[in-house]
Amino acid sequence: MASSGRGVPAERAAAAANDLVEAREGAAALRAFLLQLDDQRAPWAQGVVDGVLNRLASAMAALDAGGAAAAGGQLSPAAGSGSGGGARPQQSVSSSGNTKKRSFSRRSQRPTDTKITSTLEDGHVWRKYGKKEIQNSRQPRSYYRCTHKSDQGCNAKRQVQACEADTSKYVVTYYGVHTCRDPSTIPLVVPDADAGAAPDRANNLISFGATTTNAAAASSSHQYLAMAADQLSTSWCASDDVFSFSSSAGSLMQVDELIGAVVGSAGVVTSTATVGSSARLDRGGGFGGVAGGSGGGGGGGTGSFPPSPNGLGSFVVGSFGSVGGDDDDLFRMDP
DNA sequence: TATATTTGACCTTT
DNA sequence: AAAGGTCAAATATA
Question: What predicted TM-score, i.e. pTM, was given to this entire model?
């Protein structure tokens, strides 16, 4: 309500600026990636990306000139709704009589990493706190947070969703970084260069293997790939390759689309297999067991994911760069 | 008994 | 208003 503002509301402008900055980061990362890609279509793709970068640059310039200039500061999502309605009923009594106070900001974090894996083991100990049916997906999404959130305030989270095309695989999206110190949860960070040089080990990692020594660039790559992967949703599991661009690319196609498509084409994202997927029958007994034994409050009619294991990670989750939230986009797109 | 999961309700964002 | 993310009571399991 209260649409104060003549043209574009400041908040929207700031949001747009943020989006542009991120889009630029992603496009730049993609461009860097394309430079080392050995593919006939690479030059063409580079041209397209260059076009995107140019447009983004001009858009940012226009926005900046417009006085929006909120780019530097990220809009605070938490305070967002407050400004509008202000005091919300901080609690409500449910039918059962319990009162619930809540104050959380949703989607305050951007994914730091997304990968497809055949196992949920990643070397961290997770605690499941929710599950949700998702609109365009047949597979429910499960929500996990680090077990050490309570005792160490670790804010790492992850979302797990079975791949629609191949339900034996999971699309795992990570949010935040682990700040916990528990030995069993210390992530081993695998350098990008390694992953790139050693394809064998790259199986479980999404990496651009950036040749650049620019750490910021590498970090951005990861971040944006996560975004792109998110856009692709679970369908990308199915599309092993080939996609087609229409020539409409010339007219600034959606950056997300573009990047998602190109990434898909390059086949950078490799799904995994062969990682000790079974071999453990922890508690529910793995995949199938949960639904049957089920417990829980109502006995899952629908299947659910196996409890998060705390075994030694079969693969490692790297936590890179700054978590979305505060970002001072240091990324440079060009020398 | 303690800890983890399930699940419906609540809350935020789009 | 719908969709998605989180909370917390109820319930299972170790």
Answer: 0.44
DSSP, res A167: T
The Cα–Cα gap between A279 and A277 comes to: 7
Residue A293 contacts strand C, CB under 7 A: yes
Q: Residue A184 — very low, low, confident or very high, per pLDDT cuts 50/70/90? A: very low
Residue A32: both structure tokens together: 């860097």
Partners of residue A162 on adjacent β-strands: A170
Protein contacts on strand C: list nucleotides below 7 Å from a Cβ: 2-14
User: Does the pLDDT of residue A178 top 80, yes or no?
Assistant: yes
Whose CA is nearest the C1' atom of nucleotide C2? Answer: A135
From the Cβ of A96, is strand C under 7 Å away?
A: yes
Token representation of residue A141: 């999404």
Q: From the CB of residue A250, how many other CB atoms can be counted at a distance below 10 Å?
A: 10
As a rounded value in angstroms, the CA-to-C1' distance for A213 and C3 is 41
A94 touches strand C (CB under 7 A): no
Sign of the Cα pseudo-torsion (A228, A234, A235, A238, in order): positive
Asked if residue A31 lies in contact with residue A334, where contact means CB atoms within 8 angstroms, the answer is no
- Cα four-point dihedral sign A175, A176, A177, A180: negative
* Residues A241, A227: Cα–Cα separation, whole Å: 19
